[in-house]
Amino acid sequence: MIDVKPFIAFAEVLEKGSMNLAAQSLDITPSAVSQHISRLERDYQVKLLSRHARKITPTDAGLALAEHCQRLRHSLKDITQTLENLKTEAVGELHIALPSGFATSPKFTQALNLLAARHPNIRLQLHFDDTAQDLIERQIDLAILPQYELDKARHLIARRLARWQQQICASPRYLSRHTPIASPDDLYHHNWIYDEPIHLTLQKGSHTHALRITDTTHCNQAAAVQALTVAGLGLSVQLSGEIAGKVADGQLQIVLPDWQLPSMDFYLVTPYRVQSAKTEAMIKILMECFLES
């Protein structure tokens, strides 16, 4: 039977970039890692790594082997996770990574309330971050990602959760104190708040307008953009699902509602195909809340 440990050690060295870091990750000594690599090179009569001072780089043969070793490592992690997921009781900590704006989504808060009622033994750990995270490295059970982040990810299992419309909005107080907005051209005479420069196309029937906003107030978090917009500091582009509650209670008002902006898809993402009972419970509730009409 083939011993897979040398192949796993080789994959770890490539990912970590050094014998020492690979040894720490595998919980073995650097000497043991080196012996695994030497064994591969000896048994298969091929040089896999080039060592220059403190730098380790794969040879052509090492690069050819790397992809297979990485797949083997992921498969072994899937096997381990599958065995762990045989537990059927929905209990313990559940780590969820998601964009900061979801904190204000009525559907998401509805899901949290349902989870607390149905599964009181699940302890939520919410990781709000507007950039994609390494789910396996950070031990995230479940993530919500926009389409553009999902496109960058590999080895993730995804299912679509929601499609939200982008909308320009402002507080009624801001709009009452500033120049009326009757057309897209009027947008350039106002203060803007954004977490990323705005490059969007507005559409009304056969008419389009390329909106480009790259100055005024910049924030590094979407939730902060929304809070400052509610406070009356200017216009911003928000997602319909995140501001539904604030529009309904009059804290925010949609600007140029006849002009449509692109929509954005969000996905539920997991690092493994087979889920624990606690993760499956949260997925079921989220799908129930977001997909209901």
Describe it:
Pfam families: HTH_1, LysR_substrate. It comes from Conservatibacter flavescens. GO terms for molecular function: DNA-binding transcription factor activity; sequence-specific DNA binding. Belongs to the LysR transcriptional regulatory family. Keywords: DNA-binding, Transcription, Transcription regulation. There is one protein chain. With 293 residues, this protein is an alpha/beta fold. It has 3 domains: 80 residues, Arc Repressor Mutant, subunit A; 92 residues, Periplasmic binding protein-like II (D-Maltodextrin-Binding Protein, domain 2, 3-Layer(aba) Sandwich), CATH 3.40.190.10; 100 residues, D-Maltodextrin-Binding Protein, domain 2, CATH 3.40.190. Helix content is 40%, strand content 25%. It contains 10 helices and 13 strands. Strands 3, 4, 5, 6, 11, 12 and 13 form a 7-stranded mixed beta sheet that branches. Strands 1-2 form a two-stranded antiparallel ribbon. Helix 1 crosses helix 2 and helix 1 packs across helix 3. The protein is elongated and about 75 Å long. The N and C termini lie far apart (55 Å). 27% of the residues are buried.
